[in-house]
Amino acid sequence: MREAKDYNKAFAQRLKYFLSRDHMTQQELANRLQVSPQAVTNWVKAKKTPRMDKVDDMCKIFHCRRSDFSDQVSDEDIETQEYLQQLRDRSEMKMLFKSAKTATKEQIEAIVKLLDSTKGK
User: Fold this and answer.
1) What does pTM read for this prediction?
2) In whole angstroms, what is the distance from residue 107 CA to residue 31 CA?
3) Are residues 87 and 110 in the same domain?
4) Do 51 and 82 belong to one domain?
5) What domain range includes position 7?
6) Tens digit of each residue's pLDDT (9 = 90 or more) over 72-115
7) pLDDT of 40 above 70
8) Which sign does the torsion angle of CA 41, 44, 49, 54 carry?
9) Could you tell me which residue, 31 or 73, shows the higher pLDDT?
10) 42 & 96 share domain
11) Any residues with CB less than 8 A from the CB of 59 and at least 6 apart, and which?
12) Contact present, 79 and 105 (Cβ < 8 Å)
């Protein structure tokens, strides 16, 4: 039973990561997978995991492999996604998100500083 809980937690963590990385809401994912929003909420809260056919569909949506849902998210990945979340509401930063999916936190910070430095010019 412990292994199932650990798997659910790892899956939930990865799903949150992919949703954040791709700027997708739980509702949008539910719509694309043709499942209820509550089903996605249960996956995100690690209460349940989806059937394998839904995992396969998510792999297509997020351009990843099944195993990517069981890998642990690094602290650096989480930190980067949290930083991006803080920037999302800043209208002058919208162009940043087109390339941010593969950027490191340090690269994003450098771009933000550059953009901030040009505000008055």
Assistant:
1) 0.61
2) 33
3) yes
4) no
5) 2-69
6) 656 666 666 667 666 766 666 666 665 566 677 788 788 778 87
7) yes
8) positive
9) 31
10) no
11) 65, 66, 68, 69
12) yes
Look at residues 11, 14, 82 and name the one whose alpha carbon lies nearest to residue 52.
11
Place of tokens 């910070």: 109
What are 20's two structure tokens? 């954040």
**Percentage of residues in the chain having pLDDT higher than 90:** 35
Burial 3-34 (b: 16+ CB within 10 A, else e): eeeeebebbbbbbbbbbbbeeeebeebbeebe
Residue 120 backbone phi and psi in degrees, to 5? -85, 0
How many domains does one find in the chain? 2
First to last CA, the chain: 60
Token readout for 27 is: 């509702």
- Give Cα separations from 60 to 9, 18, 65 (angstroms): 21, 12, 8
Question: 49 and 19 in one domain?
Answer: yes
> CA 114, CA 2: separation in Å to the nearest integer?
47
3-state secondary structure of 102: helix
